[in-house]
Amino acid sequence: MFTFLIRRALTLVVTLLIVSVLAFLIPYAGDGDPARKILRARVNDPALDPAQVEALTHELGLDRPIYTQYFDWLHQVLTGGFGFSFTSRTPVQELVVPALGVSVTLALAALLLALVFALPLGIWAATARGGKVDNAITFMSQSAVSAPEYWVGPVMVLIFARYLGWLPSGGWTGPEYIVLPAVALALRPLGYFTQVTRAAMSDVLSAPYITAARSRGLSFPRTLVRHGLRNSMLPVMTLFSFWFAGLLGGSVVIEVIFNIPGMGRLLYTAVLNNDVPVIQGGMLWILTLAVVINTVTDLLYGVLNPAIRVSSHG
Fold first, then answer.
1. In DSSP terms, which residues pair with 84 in a beta bridge?
2. DSSP the chain
3. What 3-state DSSP class applies to 46?
């Protein structure tokens, strides 16, 4: 177990270094000089004075070797943050951290809501495999997967906010504001979780140890909970971690539709304004959390399935 943890920790450190390099290279992505991009974000004028470009290049150290720039930037990130936003002159940390908290809350609410319904539906479909219940649940889950957020969001606003008046149409000032966006964001993962749970539980129910447990007189519900659910949760955990990492910055459409001040909306606005420090800070936070989440998932895999630790050690 100790060797397993050490290897995962080393993998985490190396991956985070790669993530930092990718975030650092964001201003160099695409065509154009980074100094010109920065000036356009500040003055919003396509005609730039070459003297200003040269002065800014020297001021920011962009005329130094790129590896020197990277280590200076990494030192600044580790000690003092990401600087100031070009458009609002606000420290990037003061923009990114609250937005990230909103996105984490929204993503967790949506995914937990999806799990609450997906697990029993997937188990029910697996126990009734090939029947009408299985076909109905499969149809509903596939429909949920194919429902895009840019369509679901406005429809829910029209029905539940505009016509029925049950819930607010947008904003983020109370618990009631999370209901509509969380439901809209939960539909697609609900479909995936249901299908994966059904497939995993179907494989588990046909395993020899399930038959052996039943032959020892263990009831079907107890066999399902004690032996089936734990093993079938492994692929669901993986899918949950992938969705959680993706939704941290990938819920742009929902955050824009419902006027939510999350990370997706912040990055969307930063890209439109060419606000490089905000883009760098936001992407580094998202990628770092994604790497940490995947590492924690690997560790939980090792706890739930000791064979994984043995395989890793070997």
1. 91
2. -HHHHHHHHHHHHHHHHHHHHHHHTGGGSSSS-HHHHHHHHHH--SS--HHHHHHHHHHTTTTS-HHHHHHHHHHHHHHH-S-B-TTT--BHHHHHHHHHHHHHHHHHHHHHHHHHHHHHHHHHHHHTTTSHHHHHHHHHHHHHHT--HHHHHHHHIIIIIIIS--S-SS--SSGGGGHHHHHHHHHHHHHHHHHHHHHHHHHHHTSHHHHHHHHTT--HHHHIIIIIIHHHHHHHHHHHHHHHHHHHHH-HHHHHHTT--SHHHHHHHHHHHT-HHHHHHHHHHHHHHHHHHHHHHHHHHHHH-HHHHHHHH-
3. coil
Global pTM value: 0.79
CB count within 10 Å of CB 167 equals 16
Token output for 221: 């519900």
| pLDDT (tens digit per residue) in 283-311 | 888 888 888 888 787 777 666 655 555 44
pLDDT tens digits along 185-223: 999 999 999 998 888 888 777 767 666 666 676 666 666
* pLDDT number for residue 106: 92
